[in-house]
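Team,

Forwarding the record for the chain on the shared tracking sheet. I've put the sequence and predicted structure together so nobody has to dig through attachments.
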Amino acid sequence: MTDSATQQDASVPVEGPVLPEETSAPAVEETPVVEETPVVAETAAAAPEDGERAARRSRRRRAAVRWSAAVVVCALAGTGTALAVTAQERTDLPGLATPKDGRYTFPALVLPQLPSGQPAPKENKGRHTADLRALLLPVPAEAGGSLVPAAVPGVGSSASPSAPGSASASPTGSPSASSAAPSGATPSAAAPVARVPCEAITADWKDPGALRALLLQKACRDAAVREWTAADGTRTQIRLLSFGSQAEAWPLFDKLRRTGEPKDSSGGVATGDTQGWDTVFGVDLAAREVPGSPAATRIAFLSAGNVTGVITMTNPKGVPTAAFRQVVTLQSDLLA
């Protein structure tokens, strides 16, 4: 009985504390241990670096301000210098004065007033209706004396051109100018100017008979002359001759430019160089000169519509090229 009881006891589980089965526990992530000492070192090293960057930025800002100020100062200095230079005459600036080349100082050129209702030459087939004396170039400031060919019959002189229609006829039938000068006339503009017979020009040229016949054939209507002598001895004479139309004025211009020779010249005249001249549109130009270096006589012929102009400049020492070119250019401006 004891054995059976023992077996029974062996088959019956003995009650006791039940131990839980071993299960795999979840892996626990290990948190890295941050060492505090390196962080403190990095923070300490970053502080000087930030300060250095700030210092560099500050230096760059100061440099930018300095360069900007320098640019402004240079701009102001350049502007001030330019104003100082341009405000003065070139001849007043040391080292920049233009050497005298013989050019003259003329008063401001003013085109003459046209008769009431008359168009300008450009709108009138080149026909000039203004007083012929008003188309003459004024005398420059360098003129030492003004000349009027008083020995020529029928010459009348005036201080300045009078209004059209105010001229009175001379005993020879050629109109003479009024002696009254308009108010506001400058001394140069008020220099003597003469209205002369058309045939008066023939006395200056060889073969005057052919010229006289041409003037009669083409019916020259009016002529005017102005002369002056500059301080350097250069004598200038400007003659203007007026015809009824350009077709009547052209033959005189053509003859003079091809065969015209001053009566006092010896050895003939040569064609002058007019290349590169700033001639006015509508004004034809031809030049001749007595051979020499420089030429003692220079002549220019102008054709502007119904007006033919003859400019003669003489000087035994030589006519300055710049003065000759200046006179011709300005006279052509008045005839445009």
